[in-house]
Amino acid sequence: MATEILMPALSPTMEEGTLAKWLKKEGDAVSAGDIIAEIETDKATMEFEAVDEGVLGKILIAEGTEGVKVNTPIAVLVEEGEDVDAAVAEAEAGSDAASGSKAPAPAESAAKAPAKPASAPAAPRSNASPDWAEGTEMKEMTVREALREAMAEEMRRDENVFLMGEEVAEYEGAYKISQGLLDEFGAKRVIDTPITEHGFTGVAVGAAFGGLRPIVEFMTFNFAMQAIDQIINSAAKTLYMSGGQMGAPMVFRGPNGAAARVGAQHSHDFSAWYAMIPGLKVAIPYSASDAKGLLKTAIRDPNPVIFLENEILYGRSFEVPKLDDFTVPFGKARIWREGKDVTIVSFGIGMQYALEAADRLTEDGIEAEVIDLRTLRPIDYDTVLASVMKTNRCVTVEEGFPVGAIGNHLGATIMQRAFDYLDAPVINCTGKDVPMPYAANLEKLALVTTDDVVAAVHQVTYR
Amino acid sequence: MAARKTPAKSNTSKEDLLHFYRQMLLIRRFEEKAGQLYGMGLIGGFCHLYIGQEAVVVGLEAAAEEGDKRVTSYRDHGHMLACGMDPKGVMAELTGRRDGYSKGKGGSMHMFSKEKHFYGGHGIVGAQVPIGAGLALSDKYKGTDRVTFTYFGDGAANQGQVAETYNMAQLWELPVVFVIENNQYAMGTSVKRATRSPDFWERGAAYGIKGEAVDGMDVLAVKEAGEKAVAHCRAGKGPYILEVMTYRYRGHSMSDPAKYRTREEVQKMREERDAIEHVRELLLQGKHATDDELKAIDKEIKSIVNEAAEFSKESPEPDPAELWTDIYAEEAPQEA
Ligand SMILES: Cc1ncc(C[n+]2csc(CCOP(=O)(O)OP(=O)(O)O)c2C)c(N)n1
Ligand SMILES: [Mg+2]
User: Fold this and answer.
1) Where are the domains of chain A?
2) Do A195 and B105 count as a contact with CB atoms less than 8 A apart?
3) A257 alpha carbon to ligand 1 midpoint, in Å?
4) Rounded Cα gap, residues A217 and B194, in angstroms
5) Model's pTM, two decimal places?
6) Fold of the CATH domain B14-310
7) ipTM value of the model?
8) Is there a catalytic annotation at residue A197?
9) H/E stretch holding A54
10) Is the pLDDT reported for residue A123 higher than 90?
């Protein structure tokens, strides 16, 4: 049986090449692994090995030919003793019919990317159910305490949950989030690491692959940039790359964004960065109850979760329900106040400006509806859209940079799904497009402010 | 610790001793003042003082020549003063004013001086280490015989990029002195809680880099080791590692509960090993200076520092328009 030798693809992007040289001539015996030709691509000259053994029956493409398309027959290999002409004719006759089977043709259905499975109905359906039943006993608690309680409760519930990071154990956390955890859970489960973010993040990802539930504390998210490769390439993508066999159920948490005058390298808000990555979930609580409920959900989630805290919010107190096992689901925004004139959407520390602005706007007779997204992946589009369809105006508020901001994405989504309802363009209030300055006056100017939000609302309400 | 000690027969001149005394005292008084201004709310954010470690940078600067470069971490005030940057400009940066080295935009952790070949001031632990090797690459590339001093802490020494840098620096024979300022703690983590291989200078051996440990409370020993390291680099033999054993008297930054070490430990270092006291004794014992002469120097340094503090309070805040400047360079940056 004769076989055709086809022009090989020697790189992922090669479509054609030059048959530079034949190293065997017609009639030569060839064994598998023999170099039979040299092929030139735009990147390199490569040696081309025979895969089968036999006799080089006929050369179809002469050496020096340029622009030979990948998969073009370039020679025919016949069996020892076979009649060359007959075998070549047979092979050439079969080649048209067979060529389709050499490289599998894409399945019809796969040629076009299928639409994302529709998870949301055309009309937004907002789930405004409360996070806890009316009449639940409440207690006052700081965001810091709420985070600590969430970790302690989950560590009690699941012995595979453990915490690692710089200064989390003996020092009890650079921001005291892990206070008392070493005492209760011991050094096996509350692990101090050296200052080696890329390394220990990779170790944690491996531990998650191995069935543990790591919580990685970054002293601040600025330092997670050292580990960004392990977070994105290892943690976020492995479930997909393994066809669903294994993933990284883990939490990356720590303070995110500006604190107070800690300068350009320590003040970065990464919300939009992480929200961009499929495979990650991203939670960013504002209140203590959300800090607690979302962190518990994050720890139980079978996916890598980025949990963005805020140093300035750590010390703030809020009411938290006194429940044995209080969780807050991902993808469910919270409406902090209802209003009919404008929708203000925010998350994390941005909520502070959103709520302050809403208060001030009542003096001007403007009733703002304020929505806290709480998670950026998944995002509760429906609550936002339902609100915008009611108020016809939207202002978004976040601390991060203006280019590629969460607000940009919300604006685009609103435009697509509620265009006819809009009475004004959506305005994004963001941090300024500059690295964070150190000087007190400049830092204030760089941050998003309540004044910015109030001004934007006046602009979209035309009053 | 088998660290290099003061050479038994020190032939250090009176001028050198006085210079060391002055420089170390300047750093200490400056840092004490910075601590005060922080307490008064004039300095914000993170502020990492160098008190206790003065001999490291003063000793190494004594081994440096004009045109040599230096780069360090956020604990950078001492390095800037030692390489000749103006205390006024440094203090004004600490207070975030327009006369600061970065026009008030960098702060305590991020200052730079092209003129003095001081390349920062870096806030990310370990990030300055490959940068230091890159600075050395630029010198080798241009064919100068300048050397780069790359300072980093014992905590930073465990960062992955340090290992990567060692490999490249030796591979390419870069003229860089890696100075590990081993002050025994990275925030609240002692060296032995961060590694089972606590002799950081020995790690160079894995890459073929020579090095040694030095007593960093002894400015003469540091200078001597520095000279040896610099000679190695200038001779084109590649990088050199100095692990300088030192100690920080103050907290890691201004907010440090300091529960990871005892008061007695700190007290003992201050009383028995203080680098400034050491030089003071050499000056007095060698009859190079009288008590009164040293007191006069103290006074002079105090007034320099007070002037810097006054200057830093009076310098105005940056113009609001500065918010939008320096984000992109208008022209190609000038050659270093
Ligand atoms: C990548 C990174 N991780 C964590 C931090 C927070 N941090 C700042 S200084 C420091 C300790 C560094 O110790 P060391 O290297 O020994 O230097 P020293 O402060 O003792 O001079 C830590 C953990 C940081 N700035 N950068
Ligand atoms: Mg240290």
Assistant:
1) 3-112, 119-123+334-461, 138-321
2) no
3) 18
4) 17
5) 0.85
6) Rossmann fold (3.40.50)
7) 0.83
8) yes
9) strand A54-59
10) no
